[in-house]
Each structure stands twice: as structure tokens, then as C-alpha cells.
Amino acid sequence: MVSRRNRTLASLSLFLAVWVWNASAAAVKGETARVDVGALSSPQIEEQLQNCSVVQALNAHKVASSPTGSSLTSKIFAFLFPGSPAVNALLATLYISGPPNFLLALCPPNIDPSSLSVMVAFAVGGLLGDTLFHLLPEIFLGEDEHDKVKFVMVEPNKNLLLGVAIMVGFVTFVAMDKGLRIATGGEGGHDHSHGHAHEKVEPIGTTTGTELKGSKDGARARKPAANTSTTPDTLREPEKEINPSVKLGGYLNLIADFTHNITDGLAMSSSFYASPTIGATTTVAVFFHEIPHEVGDFALLIQSGFSKRAAMGAQFITALGALLGTCIGIAIQELGGNSASEGLEGPGLFGTSLRWGDMLLPFTAGTFLYVGTVAVIPELLETGPEKGKEFRKTITQFAAMFTGAGIMLA
Description:
Elements: H1 4-34, H2 42-50, H3 53-65, H4 72-80, H5 85-103, H6 117-141, H7 158-183, H8 196-214, H9 218-222, H10 230-240, H11 244-274, H12 276-303, H13 308-336, H14 360-372, H15 377-381, H16 387-409
Helix pairs in contact: 5-11, 5-12, 5-13, 6-12, 6-14, 6-16, 7-11, 7-14, 8-10, 8-12, 11-12, 11-13, 11-14, 12-13
């Protein structure tokens, strides 16, 4: 039988245990009450969540179930982009602007932009793959980390603002393309693949020379030239004259190209500030897009009356737009900050955690959607009268497109 003394001690122990429990619970409640939850930034909320025992158990399970090593791709990216987000963005701008411009020295002046359709399809796959596989998930959900789980906090108006930024980027290119079409009298805007629009323009400046070279009676056409003094002048004069609308189209294309390169620079800065992986994949996608884009612009300038050296110089000047865009993007990220920045106080845009720096990535995603669809897809949809040839060409284009998208998955 339990003695009275033991019963008293047991009751006292139980009372002390309950008192300690209530005191600790009140302390935790009071500490939580003192924290202004509305003033916490996204990194601070994430840090608080990582201290939870359940989250820590999930982190341990994730590391144990999916160990990751350093792949060849990650090693290459780490070698190419070893610095801070700002340094990496500047390096990426150099990578996407330098080699495509140097390749123009190897391009013949009479290159046909329509022959680049397979490369254009490859670039489309890369751009859309980067946008759909990397940029949009990063914009709305953030990037996965191999050693810990992450949680997404749904805020009122946050997704709405991100969607507005995507639409603004898309509409910006629509307005630019529409303005160029109005300025050139509706003869074609700034087509990033430069296939369909250039095929319309090319006959204006080269009709006479092309027809004479391709004519079956070319020898007889040249023979009377020795006996008639007016014929050579008649033949040479149309080759020297360039239609004024074609000249205007060439200069307007330079302006559009400069503007387009600014958005490429913004893409570089915003993607590297989002994460190194997003920045690296965006660099690859933009690089493959820049090759047919630069060659197409080069061909248009030649058709507009530029010499090869002048066209290369003009393309180099427009490439400086990418550097300008990168510097603008870095300034916005550093001065305006983003939701992952430390030390930011007060509410963000429209009461959300978003900052001005967070708007750059969705803006560039909208421009990529325009370039990868509206600006290029119409050319890939064009077909000729030969069904067999067009079917084989279509298969090749789709294969190139899926290859470009597959690289974004690697």
C-alpha cells in the first residue's frame, strides 16, 4: 500500500510537471506573439521553417533518398561562371555576344536566311524549353535544392503581379514589331529568324542581276553588250540602286536588334540573380538563338546596301545593347533588391513580398515566349508545293526543335 508520504511526493511532482509545461508553453506563445509575422521577409520565414523538427526530418530523408553528385554539366557551368551573380551575368553577355558576331566573318554576303530554318527550329526549342522548363517554374515556385525541402507561401496578388510582368514582356515585343511594320509601310517587321520577311525584301535590290544570271539566254544577253554602249549602264544601274524602303528597313532593324539585345542582357542579369543554374541554362538558350538571329540581321543589312565590313561593324554596335541591358538589370537587382535579399524592410509591391528585381525574370520570360512563338513559328509553318520535300523538311525541323528542348532538360 502506498504511503501517505509517497502520495504527497507524487502529487507534488505532477503539479511541478504541469506547471513547467504551462510555463514553457506560455513563454513560447509570448515569444511568438512578440514576433511581427507581417514584417518577416521570405528568407526569414524560410529560416524559421527550417528549425521545425518535421522539416529537418524531411531534409534528412531527402538527402538520404536522392544523393547527388557533381555532373559534367554542373562542372562546365561552374568553370564558365565562377563569380557572383553580377560577374556571371557579364560573362554570360560576353559569351552570347562575342562568338556569334565573329562568326559573321565566315558568312558569305549572299547567304539566304531561309536556309537557316533548321537552326531556327533548334533555337526555338531551346528558348521555349528554357522558358517552360526553367524560367516559369522558377518564377512561381522557386528552385529546388538537393539538401533541403522548400515551401511556397501563397500571397494575395503575388501570382497576379508575376503574370502581369510576363504579359508586359510579351506585349512590349508586340508593340515593337508592330511599330516597325508601320514604319516600313507594312513590308515586314523585325522577324527574329529573318526568313520570311527577307524573302519579300530581297527581290527589290537584286532582281535584275539574279534574273540575268539565272536566264538560259545569259550568253546572248551579254553578247550585245559589247556592241551597244547603253546596255551595260542599263544593266548595272538597277544593281546599285536600293529601294528606299529597304534602306529604311535595314536601319530600323538595327534599332530593333539593339532593343532586342537589351532584353537579352536583362535576361542574363535576372536569371543569374535567381540562381546559377537558371542563369546557365538561359545563357545556353540565348546563345543558340543568337546565331541564326545575327546571321539573319547580317543578310538583311547586306540587302539594304551595307558592305560586309559595315554590316559586321553595325552588328557589333548592336551587340553592345546586351551589355547595356545587363548593366541595367544588375543595377535594378542591386538597388531595387528582390524577395530573397537580406535586410529589406517594409512591404513590397502592392503589399506582397515581391520587389522590383523580381519583375525582371517574368518580363524576360514574356519576351522569350514572343520570340519563340510569334516571331518564328510563322516561318516554320510555311510550306512549298513539293509535298515530299516539305514533309522531310518538317521532320528535320521538329527533330531540331526537340533536340533544342532536350538540351534544356539535360
